[in-house]
C-alpha cells in the first residue's frame, strides 16, 4: 500500500442485498448529461445524444435521464445511485465510442467502484468450512501432556540416519532373526 | 461481535510460548529459526501489521557451540560515544561476562532493523542454564526443534549400554590401548 492510498476509502467486493442472485435491480437511478451545443469538446457527447440516447432511455425505463445544455462548459455526466452516492464523470474531448463504453460502465456499476481500494478481489460470507486457524491446529496432541523441555520434541527429527545408527539397527534385526531360527 | 466470534479471535491470535534448547547449537543459525517464531512468520495468519509474534524461551545458552575458532576470532564491537571509546570484545570474553549475550545479539542481528525489532526482542527470554522461573515455565506449550543433534559423550552413556553395543571385534587381552 503506497502513500497515496492512505486516504483512499477501502472496501470489499459487495453486491447490495444479493443483487443479481434471482432478480436484478438496476442501481443507477438518474443520469444527467451536461454539454455545450457548440464547443468541440462536447462533440462526442452530442453524437451520443443524437444516435444512442433514445435507445438507452428506452432500454432502461428505471433510469431518469436529464439533458442539460450549457454554453461553453465542458461536457460531464453525473450518475446517481440507489444507495445515494453520486458519480461525476468528465466527458471532455471523449469520442462517441469511448462515451458509449463509459455510460455502460455507469449503468452497470452499483456505486463509485473506482473510488474504493479493494482490499481483496473476492468476498465470501463463509471464508472457511473447517474454521479459522488457531495455534493448536495440526499440533501433535502429545504436546498437551508432555513435560517441556523434552528431548523427544526438541531434537532434530529431519536428519538422515547416521551410518552408526544404520549398523546398529541391522545388528538388532539380525539378532531377532537369530532368535527366530533358533526356535 | 458475537461471543463465539470473540473467542475465535482470541484463539487465532493467542500467543504461544515456545522453548528452545541452545545446547550445542550454532547461535547464528538458530537465530534464524528463533526469529521466525518471535515475529510470527511460522503462522498462516502472518501479516507485518498484525501482532502475531510468539514468545520464545531459550535455555542452556551457556552451552552454545560456535563454528571453527570463532570463540577466539569473533569480536563484538562497542563504542561508548566518547573519543577513544571503541572496544572489541572477543566472543569467549563476552560469553564469560554474560552467557546470554551472544544468542541475544545473534537474534537481534537476524531481524531487520525497524521500529518493531526492539519490541519483538522483548518477547525473547534467555537463560544460561536449565532452570527457568516457574511462572514462565508453566506458559510453555511448544518446543522448537534444534538444528543439530546434540553429541553424547561416551562417559555419559550408561555402562550397560556401552557393554551391549555391537562390536566388530574384541581387542586381544594383551593389546595395550594408547
From TrEMBL, chain A:
<comment type="similarity">
    <text>Belongs to the mitochondrion-specific ribosomal protein mL43 family.</text>
</comment>
<dbReference type="Pfam" id="PF05047">
    <property type="entry name" value="L51_S25_CI-B8"/>
</dbReference>
<dbReference type="GO" id="GO:0003735">
    <property type="term" value="F:structural constituent of ribosome"/>
</dbReference>
<keyword id="KW-0496">Mitochondrion</keyword>
<dbReference type="GO" id="GO:0005762">
    <property type="term" value="C:mitochondrial large ribosomal subunit"/>
</dbReference>
<dbReference type="InterPro" id="IPR036249">
    <property type="entry name" value="Thioredoxin-like_sf"/>
</dbReference>
<dbReference type="InterPro" id="IPR039927">
    <property type="entry name" value="Ribosomal_mL43"/>
</dbReference>
<feature type="domain" description="Ribosomal protein/NADH dehydrogenase">
    <location>
        <begin position="37"/>
        <end position="110"/>
    </location>
</feature>
<keyword id="KW-0689">Ribosomal protein</keyword>
<keyword id="KW-0687">Ribonucleoprotein</keyword>
<protein>
    <recommendedName>
        <fullName>Large ribosomal subunit protein mL43</fullName>
    </recommendedName>
</protein>
<dbReference type="GO" id="GO:0032543">
    <property type="term" value="P:mitochondrial translation"/>
</dbReference>
<dbReference type="InterPro" id="IPR007741">
    <property type="entry name" value="Ribosomal_mL43/mS25/NADH_DH"/>
</dbReference>
UniProtKB/TrEMBL annotation, chain B:
<dbReference type="GO" id="GO:0003729">
    <property type="term" value="F:mRNA binding"/>
</dbReference>
<dbReference type="GO" id="GO:0006412">
    <property type="term" value="P:translation"/>
</dbReference>
<comment type="similarity">
    <text>Belongs to the universal ribosomal protein uL13 family.</text>
</comment>
<keyword id="KW-0687">Ribonucleoprotein</keyword>
<keyword id="KW-0689">Ribosomal protein</keyword>
<dbReference type="GO" id="GO:0005762">
    <property type="term" value="C:mitochondrial large ribosomal subunit"/>
</dbReference>
<dbReference type="Pfam" id="PF00572">
    <property type="entry name" value="Ribosomal_L13"/>
</dbReference>
<protein>
    <recommendedName>
        <fullName>39S ribosomal protein L13, mitochondrial</fullName>
    </recommendedName>
</protein>
<dbReference type="InterPro" id="IPR036899">
    <property type="entry name" value="Ribosomal_uL13_sf"/>
</dbReference>
<dbReference type="InterPro" id="IPR005822">
    <property type="entry name" value="Ribosomal_uL13"/>
</dbReference>
<dbReference type="InterPro" id="IPR005823">
    <property type="entry name" value="Ribosomal_uL13_bac-type"/>
</dbReference>
<dbReference type="GO" id="GO:0003735">
    <property type="term" value="F:structural constituent of ribosome"/>
</dbReference>
<dbReference type="GO" id="GO:0017148">
    <property type="term" value="P:negative regulation of translation"/>
</dbReference>
Amino acid at each position: 500500500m503506497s502513500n497515496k492510498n492512505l486516504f483512499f476509502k477501502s472496501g470489499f467486493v459487495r453486491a447490495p442485498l444479493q443483487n443479481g442472485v434471482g432478480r436484478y435491480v438496476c442501481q443507477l437511478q438518474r443520469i444527467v448529461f451536461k454539454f455545450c451545443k457548440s464547443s468541440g469538446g462536447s462533440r462526442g457527447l452530442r453524437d451520443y445524444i443524437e444516435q444512442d440516447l433514445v435507445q438507452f432511455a428506452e432500454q432502461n425505463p428505471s433510469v431518469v435521464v436529464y439533458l442539460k445544455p450549457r454554453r461553453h462548459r465542458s461536457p460531464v455526466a453525473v450518475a446517481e445511485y440507489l444507495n445515494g452516492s453520486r458519480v461525476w464523470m468528465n466527458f471532455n474531448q471523449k469520442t462517441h465510442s469511448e462515451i458509449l463504453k463509459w455510460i455502460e460502465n455507469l449503468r452497470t456499476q452499483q456505486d463509485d467502484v473506482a473510488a474504493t481500494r479493494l482490499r481483496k478481489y473476492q468476498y465470501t460470507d463463509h471464508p472457511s468450512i473447517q474454521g479459522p486457524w488457531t495455534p493448536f491446529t495440526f499440533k501433535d496432541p502429545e504436546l498437551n501432556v508432555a513435560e517441556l523441555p523434552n528431548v523427544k520434541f526438541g531434537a532434530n527429527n529431519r536428519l538422515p540416519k547416521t551410518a552408526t545408527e544404520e549398523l546398529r539397527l541391522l545388528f538388532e534385526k539380525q539378532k531377532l532373526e537369530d532368535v527366530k531360527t533358533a526356535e | 461481535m458475537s461471543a463465539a466470534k470473540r473467542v475465535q479471535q482470541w484463539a487465532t491470535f493467542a500467543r504461544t510460548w515456545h522453548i528452545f534448547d541452545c545446547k550445542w547449537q550454532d547461535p547464528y543459525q538458530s537465530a534464524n529459526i528463533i526469529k521466525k517464531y518471535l515475529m510470527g512468520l511460522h503462522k498462516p495468519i502472518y501479516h507485518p501489521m498484525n501482532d502475531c509474534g510468539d514468545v520464545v524461551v531459550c535455555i542452556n545458552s551457556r552451552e552454545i557451540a560456535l563454528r571453527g575458532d570463532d570463540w577466539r576470532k569473533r569480536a563484538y564491537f562497542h563504542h561508548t560515544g566518547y573519543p577513544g571509546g571503541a572496544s572489541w570484545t572477543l566472543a569467549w570474553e563476552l560469553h564469560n561476562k554474560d552467557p546470554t549475550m551472544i544468542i541475544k545479539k545473534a537474534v537481534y542481528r537476524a531481524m531487520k532493523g525497524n521500529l518493531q525489532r526492539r519490541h519483538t526482542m522483548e518477547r525473547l527470554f534467555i537463560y544460561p542454564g536449565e532452570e527457568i522461573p516457574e511462572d514462565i515455565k508453566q506458559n510453555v506449550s511448544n518446543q522448537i526443534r534444534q538444528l543439530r543433534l546434540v553429541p553424547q559423550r561416551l562417559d555419559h552413556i550408561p555402562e550397560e549400554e556401552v557393554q551391549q553395543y555391537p562390536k566388530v571385534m574384541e581387542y586381544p587381552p594383551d593389546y595395550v590401548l594408547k
